[in-house]
Amino acid sequence: MSGMMNAGAAWRLLRTDPSVGDQRVARDTVKRVVGFARPHRRIIAVFLALTVIDASTVIVTPLLVQKVLDKGIAAGDRSVVTWVALAMAGFAIFSAVLGVVSAWLSSRIGEGLIYDLRTQVFGHVQRQSMAFFTRTQTGALVSRLNNDVIGAQRAFTSTLSTTVSNVIAVLVVGVTMLALSWQVTLLCVALFPFLFLASRWVSARLAGLTREQMNGNADLGNVMTERFNVGGAMLLKLFGRRHEEDALFASKAAVVRDLGVKITLTTRVFGAAMVLVPALATALVYGVGGQLVISKSLSVGTLVALATLLLRLLGPLQGLSNVRIDIMTALVSFERVFEVLDLPSLVQERPDAEQVPPGAASLEFDDVSFTYPGSEELSLPSLEGVARPESGSSGPVLQGLTFAARPGEMVALVGPSGAGKTTVTHLVARLYDVDSGAVLVGGSDVRDVTLQSIEDAVGYVTQDAHLFHDTIRNNLLYARPGVGDDAIWGALEAAQIATMVHRLPDGLDTVVGDRGYRLSGGERQRLAIARLLLKSPAIVVLDEATAHLDSESEAAVQRALDAALEGRTSLVIAHRLSTVREADRILVLDEGRIVQQGTHGELLAEGGLYADLYRTQFLDDSAVSEEAAARA
Ligand SMILES: Nc1ncnc2c1ncn2[C@@H]1O[C@H](COP(=O)(O)OP(=O)(O)OP(=O)(O)O)[C@@H](O)[C@H]1O
């Protein structure tokens, strides 16, 4: 921690973006930053005090050198030499201890701040509505936040301490040098503007290059994350795109390589200037100071002290010339984090929200219309260009939907692809809010009850049931933490998957793999059903996807579904003949409207869209024969 700027600090300084210095940061941001610092204020105060002590003691060694040369060596006084040498050693130990303590305090402040920001951001982001997650490239958001959180932390550790330390060092060293020899000091200082100009030029150029390199790296990262997950890797293989992918990756990696070379070269030019200016200034000190020593107006000790002090003035002076950019960079990082923290969720819980009535099992849609939120309702300016949200709204997806499911009833949704079936199911657990009309669970508008109670009342099995990369046990416990193995096996049994789990070498402790890819589609779906059974909600929403199941696992899934639906109110996106036959009511959706509703028999007799869907979607050969048998 000397006053001299270290290489790391110089490098960071060069990598910051000078254009940031021109940005305006809201006054509120500064206030909020202070708010974040408040819990750490005691440590910050001690840390700053140590920084001041450290910066003001940079003159100690040069002054001791002066003393040993003039009063010790030149005067032939051995005791002075001994004392000064001991003082030097003592001071070195003191500095080292100070350095360690300062680093410890600084990391406690920095890591504490990172912790505060991270936990707040995580809590806030996970409470965002689904619209946020469908519109934002979550990977980009995560990496952006990681960088910004670290940028913000830097404000409290390096930026704050280097600024304080630089100011003190410039004052103390400057005054000491002037006191030692104002003529030599002024001469040397005249050289510094050249160094500043060089560093300005290099930092502007380097900032541009660095930004390009970051984009290039982000591009590379995207290519890798998209291709190295199970889905991407599979697509790549199935389409035989190895060579094209190699070429694509190579071209992107080449951009990063070339930029890396340019950056090194530019940095080197700057490094040369960093070495050259102090070397020239030192030459000047000895050239001019040497003359003064010969004419006896300066002592040798003072000359050497001046030369040493000069080197300690350079770094702090240069650091101060960039202080505005440094501070703005940190504030901009804070602002980006705050922007995410300030983003309101499109689905808000009312302050006076109540619980869903106990045992609520009815479901009602009352004249519901819905449009997916557009980017104007949900935008994150700092992510534009990184995550590219689609623009504009898609127009109404559901219009004037009215239907009801009494407790224990099964309502089936059918309709062509894109008719809005999945969207209807999303509205039940308030993943989105309706534009007009109301969704009622147990007679309460879902907007009047707590999100937790609605999430508890409704259970989902979606088409591509998500499993965490964790053990089967932990995936199941997600639905109901703390239940014993008996309950888990009971649910697995009912979901027709117990035998398969028993056969696995690690049983319940088998890790399911990324997104559950180590399991077959049917197995994954049955695990999801077991998870639902453990949760045991009164209302079940499920998307029957059977396209990827063979007839055996389809039969198993069917039995599992029967268990899941038993005694519960259900809303089912139906793909099976048996489901539509059993449904108490079938809603036929087309372009976001209910065009027909009734039982299977009624709708078949009515003809129209249902009859068409029946022929194209539900009726396969076996069904034909079943129907024929039933009629006979
Ligand atoms: N997150 C979203 N943002 C904007 N539009 C969406 C979103 N999800 C779906 N849509 C649009 O809403 C319409 C209805 O989609 P939905 O998924 O509800 O249809 P579906 O009947 O379930 O279709 P499928 O049977 O093919 O699954 C489609 O036009 C779709 O493009």
List the helices and strands and how they pair.
Layout: H1 7-15, H2 27-37, H3 41-56, H4 60-73, H5 78-126, H6 130-135, H7 138-180, H8 182-189, H9 192-227, H10 230-238, H11 242-294, H12 300-321, H13 323-342, E1 363-371, E2 396-405, E3 410-414, H14 421-428, E4 436-441, E5 444-445, H15 451-457, E6 458-461, H16 472-477, H17 485-494, H18 498-503, H19 521-535, E7 539-543, H20 551-565, E8 569-573, H21 577-582, E9 585-590, E10 593-598, H22 600-606, H23 609-618, H24 621-631
Parallel strand pairs: 3-8, 3-9, 6-7, 7-8
Antiparallel strand pairs: 1-2, 1-4, 4-5, 9-10
Helix pairs in contact: 3-5, 3-7, 4-5, 4-12, 5-7, 7-8, 7-12, 7-13, 8-11, 9-11, 11-12, 17-19, 19-20
Bound molecules: adenosine-5'-triphosphate.
Adenosine-5'-triphosphate (ATP) binds at residues 134, 372, 394, 397, 415, 417-423.
Write a brief caption for the model.
The protein is 63% helix and 9% strand. It is α/β, with parallel strands linked by helices and 632 residues long.
Report on the architecture of this protein.
Residues 45-329 form the ABC transmembrane type-1 domain. This is ABC transporter ATP-binding protein. One of its GO terms (molecular function) is ATP hydrolysis activity. The chain crosses the membrane at residues 43-65, 80-105, 167-197, 269-288. Pfam families: ABC_membrane (PF00664), ABC_tran (PF00005). The chain is of the alpha/beta class and 632 residues long. The chain has 2 domains: 7-342, ABC transporter type 1, transmembrane domain (ABC transporter transmembrane region fold, Up-down Bundle), CATH 1.20.1560.10; 363-373 and 396-631, P-loop containing nucleotide triphosphate hydrolases (Rossmann fold, 3-Layer(aba) Sandwich). Helix content is 63%, strand content 9%. It contains 24 helices and 10 strands. The chain has helices at 7-15, 27-37, 41-56, 60-73, 78-126, 130-135, 138-180, 182-189, 192-227, 230-238, 242-294, 300-321, 323-342, 421-428, 451-457, 472-477, 485-494, 498-503, 521-535, 551-565, 577-582, 600-606, 609-618, 621-631; strands spanning 363-371, 396-405, 410-414, 436-441, 444-445, 458-461, 539-543, 569-573, 585-590, 593-598. Helix 3 (41-56) packs antiparallel against helix 5 (78-126) and helix 5 runs antiparallel to helix 7. The chain is elongated and about 120 Å long. The model is unreliable at 1-18 (pLDDT under 50). The structure holds adenosine-5'-triphosphate.
